[in-house]
């Protein structure tokens, strides 16, 4: 009986994969298909900035953190001999979105990093994630249709975390 089940698994698995459209192609993020090489698209990057362990407005108990409003966020991309940067800031929920205004294909996420240049709250300036002067890489979430441009690649950085300079002193 076990050998019959093993045989069915080995024989039917390729059929199931083919019926679902195959395995994700190499180079695609999270199994998302890449846009055609000739297509240009804009880029949006989003993430959050938090103060861990402090109970300010908007405190989220499950994260034990409060959002940091007005934190300066920079997206920097370097490719070969060129560098460009875009700036943004967090809203009241600690969320930021930075969008490119121009078409940037071919865009390689490994060329870009997001940085938070410090906490806007004096009592919460110890950087936990990432450590000082380090940025977070971009992770492709999805491609979004945009009426004016056609397509936008939406990336995420995850969370930037700060903590109180003196533990327990927010």
Automatic annotation (TrEMBL):
Keywords: Signal. Pfam families: Pollen_Ole_e_1 (PF01190). It comes from the Eukaryota. Residues 1-29 form the signal peptide. The keyword Signal applies. PANTHER family: OS01G0164075 PROTEIN (PTHR33470), OS01G0725900 PROTEIN (PTHR33470:SF52). It comes from Lolium multiflorum. GO terms for cellular component: cell periphery. This is Pistil-specific extensin-like protein.
